[in-house]
Write a structure and sequence with these properties.
By secondary structure, this protein is α+β, with helices and mostly antiparallel strands. 23% of the residues lie in helices and 27% in strands. The protein is globular, with a radius of gyration of 16 Å.
């Protein structure tokens, strides 16, 4: 089932998501719905808060970027209760966008390498060192679990320059090719 993507202004996007247990109600269905929603929205990652669930769950499939970023080849993950345990010192600044912030793209500086631990969909512990674009994708999605958006990483000047776009999203004056949930609308 395609779920609505919660847009900028929805309170759940600013909440710190809670850990989930193996017996979380309908977890396999939630994962399947999030994946279907991500693909239908042409996303490469989706965090549970983006579909209104304040839980520590990420679905990622960056394989579509493999031609430009070889490290993304076959990079498909379900990450439950993820924790980034290490950030590399070296950073790189690249453009980012987000399904919850349609029409906004800004340069964001992120670590080129991270170490992350999480549970897979079978609740088996995993630990990975990610580099390059996979590290960026995971950091972007991980931010959602801590109530952060990529615009929180841009300069004050850039925030001022995108303020009218953010206000347009808040007012519902934005068009998306995917199902959305805007502030104040059921």
């Amino acid at each position: 089932m395609i779920l609505p993507i919660y847009l900028y202004g929805q309170p759940v996007l600013r909440e710190v998501a809670g850990a989930i247990e193996k017996d979380y109600p309908k977890l396999p269905l939630i994962i399947a719905n999030m994946q279907e929603t991500m693909y239908k929205s042409d996303g490469i990652g989706l965090a549970a808060p983006q579909v209104g669930l304040p839980i520590r769950l990420l679905v990622i499939d960056a394989d579509v970027l493999a031609e430009d970023y070889p490290e993304c080849k076959d990079f498909k993950r379900i990450m439950i209760n993820a924790q980034i345990t290490e950030f590399g010192e070296e950073t790189i600044s690249l453009d980012e966008g987000c399904l919850s912030l349609p029409g906004i793209h800004e340069k964001v500086s992120r670590s080129k390498m991270i170490k992350i631990s999480y549970l897979n969909e079978a609740f088996e512990p995993q630990e990975e060192v990610l580099e390059g674009f996979t590290a960026r994708v995971v950091q972007h999605e991980y931010d959602h679990l801590d109530g952060q958006l990529f615009i929180d990483h841009v300069s004050v000047i850039r925030k001022q320059l995108i303020k009218s776009k953010l206000n347009s999203i808040l007012k519902g004056a934005v068009r998306c090719s995917y199902k959305v949930k805007m502030l104040g609308r059921k």
